[in-house]
Specification:
The structure holds two protein chains of two kinds.
Chain A lengths: L1 H10 L3 H7 L20 H19 L11 H12 L3 H34 L1 H14 L8 H7 L3 H26 L3 H9 L4 H39 L4 H10 L3 H29 L1 H4 L2
Helix pairs in contact in A: 4-12, 5-6, 5-8, 5-10, 5-11, 7-8, 8-10, 9-10, 10-11, 10-12, 11-12
Chain B lengths: L7 E10 L9 E11 L4 E5 L6 H9 L6 E6 L2 E2 L7 E4 L11 H11 L4 H14 L15 H13 L5 E5 L7 H18 L2 E6 L2 H7 L2 E5 L6 E6 L14 H15 L8
Parallel strand pairs in B: 3-8, 3-9, 6-7, 7-8
Antiparallel strand pairs in B: 1-2, 1-4, 4-5, 9-10
Helix pairs in contact in B: 2-3, 2-4
Classes of the chains: A mainly alpha, B alpha/beta.
The structure holds adenosine-5'-triphosphate (ATP) and magnesium ion.
Chain lengths: 287, 264
């Protein structure tokens, strides 16, 4: 009796099972594959709530080190009342973004061609690479004093430091990309009668695009690091300055407003770079 | 077609790769390697892994130059790469950033033909290889067997005098492999396109070849030539014939000749 019921249960398993036994239906219908949405991560949400709760509790009960630290509620209040609807706050955003984008752009414009030539011309490599390798280990922030001395305006020096932050990373990635092009890819193009220019345009450049993308991802992150530090040291504007001023003027909530803003700005830039990268590599999108 | 061009004659070829350091001696890969790959024939080169089969293929294609010896194609010295002899690489060499059709069109377009005028032939080939529905896909969206067929189309669209295939079906599963062998056999028997087919598999060699050239271990040369006189067009059933078994025995003897058991 129990055996029988099991058999019935398996036969009634679902519409596809029924269809496969129906006369005339050769194959069970293939269900259109639906994109699997990740199920709601409630544990993650609980953890986030716990984080803010712990923070607030630490502040309320004056845990060691938390004497001058504002709680999350104060931070949000400050953000809404003193910043969100002021012109100067959004100007800080704009200024920092402008610096990041300009530094990043110049780093691409110079770094990509330099990496390409370093990777493809042996003679150029022998001359230039040692100088490049000599400068590369110098951290971008070590360039701050020199940059201020060299450039006529503060703005130019900050953009320059930002540029330095991304430039070496982008160049070295592109250089590496050129060197790891598959020999077969070049040989085949050569066999088929392609000119040097065609090989460069249709083989070398696309082969290097994934490396350019890696350079962009790393570069944009470094650029934000550098611009914030440079603004704290050498500028009177931008999100970095806003954060630092919170400290100098003894208004700790402002420090937090600055930190949160910088975090969001960095995340937005990364998102933007991701979108651009996906457009650059249509062959990686479709799998 | 039945072209009678695409004949390779190699005489006393030597090739070694530079050692790792300046002082380390160059390891010889080919030493006194001579052969005559006839036009209009399916010449199969057999050898164990690492004996220098790919190196030989690169010399034939003109990607590398021998240290010594002469290599002629149709009586002319091989001086560099050219679209008259195309190599299908051991690892896939389709450009991943181009669609299948773009990959196939690359040769004609690079040599100055317009895309429009090259397309009919490219599409006819893709059709023949069962890739018509995949021409707008990228190589990463193809199966291993499809990639190999796309590479054949990519080469054949250029009307090469001779095809060089370097273990083209290695890494495919057994079924796909057998299908691909029948595919190439059919193509060859239809066109008699001069072919140098490199493999390490005896069954593949016997099934396809007009003639098998067996290489020794490195430093290697051709040590034995076996004429495979199984009738064409061949079916898979020919592997069950008495003649096949005889040829197999002959090849096995040659392959194991001079190889000590402890060397394996
Ligand atoms: N570019 C290179 N530099 C140095 N040594 C090489 C190079 N290419 C191949 N060799 C060596 O030459 C020998 C022959 O290599 P080759 O690739 O021609 O062999 P193969 O018969 O094609 O082997 P496989 O069955 O693995 O494809 C090997 O010992 C290999 O290590
Ligand atoms: Mg090989």
């Amino acid at each position: 009796m129990s055996d029988r019921s099991i058999i019935i249960a398996t036969h009634d398993a679902g519409p596809s099972a029924a269809a496969s036994t129906a006369p005339g239906a050769a194959k069970p219908p293939i269900r259109p594959r639906r994109r699997a949405w990740p199920t709601f991560n409630w544990r993650g949400l609980v953890a986030v709530v716990m984080f803010f709760l712990a923070w607030q509790l630490a502040v309320t009960f004056k845990a060691p080190g938390f004497h001058e630290i504002p709680g999350p509620i104060t931070v949000v209040q400050t953000l809404v009342s003193d910043f969100l609807f002021t012109r100067s706050y959004w100007e800080s955003w704009l200024i920092s973004f402008k610096r990041v984008l300009l530094g990043f752009l110049f780093a691409q414009l110079l770094g990509v061609p330099l990496g390409l030539v370093l990777g493809s011309s042996r003679r150029f490599n022998r001359i230039v690479f040692p100088v490049f390798e000599m400068m590369r280990p110098i951290p971008p922030l070590a360039w701050v004093p020199l940059s201020i001395l060299f450039w006529p305006t503060n703005e130019a020096s900050i953009i320059f430091i930002t540029f330095i932050g991304a430039f070496f990373i982008i160049t070295i990635n592109v250089y590496d990309g050129v060197r790891s092009i598959k020999q077969e890819h070049l040989w085949l193009a050569h066999s088929l009668g392609a000119s040097q220019l065609t090989i460069f345009r249709r083989i070398v450049i696309p082969a290097v695009i994934p490396s350019i993308a890696v350079g962009m991802t790393l570069g944009i992150a470094v650029t934000w690091n550098v611009v914030i530090a440079a603004e704290m040291i050498a500028s009177d504007s931008g999100l970095g300055r806003l954060t630092w001023e919170g400290y100098v003027s003894s208004t700790p909530p402002v420090v937090f407003v600055g930190m949160v803003s910088i975090g969001i700005a960095g995340a937005l830039s990364t998102l933007l770079v991701d979108v651009i990268e996906r457009r650059m590599m249509p062959w990686k999108r479709k799998r | 077609m039945g072209d009678t061009t695409g004949e390779f004659v190699g005489t006393g070829l030597y090739k070694s790769y530079a050692g790792a350091g300046a002082d380390t001696p160059a390891a010889p890969v080919l030493a006194d390697c001579s052969f005559h790959f006839e036009a209009g024939k399916l010449n199969v080169v057999m050898g164990t892994s690492g004996c220098g089969k790919s190196t030989l293929a690169y010399l034939l294609a003109g990607y590398q130059t021998p240290d010594r010896g002469t290599l002629l194609i149709d009586g002319e010295p091989v001086t560099g790469a050219g679209s008259d002899r195309l190599l299908v690489f051991q690892e896939t060499a389709l450009w991943p950033w181009m669609t299948v059709e773009e990959n196939v069109l690359f040769g004609p377009v690079s040599r100055g033909q317009s895309r429009q005028s090259a397309r009919p032939k490219a599409n006819a080939l893709l059709d023949r290889f069962g890739l018509a529905d995949f021409k707008d896909k990228y190589p990463s969206q193809l199966s291993g067997g499809m990639m190999r067929r796309a590479e054949l189309a990519q080469a054949l669209v250029n009307n090469p005098k001779v095809m060089i295939l370097d273990e083209p079906f290695r890494g495919l599963d057994v079924m796909t492999r057998e299908l691909m062998q029948e595919y190439y056999l059919k193509l060859f028997e239809d066109t008699r396109l001069s072919t140098v087919f490199i493999t390490a598999e005896l069954e593949e060699a016997l099934f396809l070849a007009d003639r098998i050239y067996i290489m020794s271990d490195a430093p290697s040369r051709i040590v034995k030539i076996i004429d495979v006189d199984l009738p064409r067009p061949r079916e898979i059933s020919c592997t069950a014939t008495r003649r096949y078994a005889e040829l197999e025995q002959e090849a096995l003897t040659a392959l194991y000749e001079g190889r000590e058991l402890e060397a394996l």
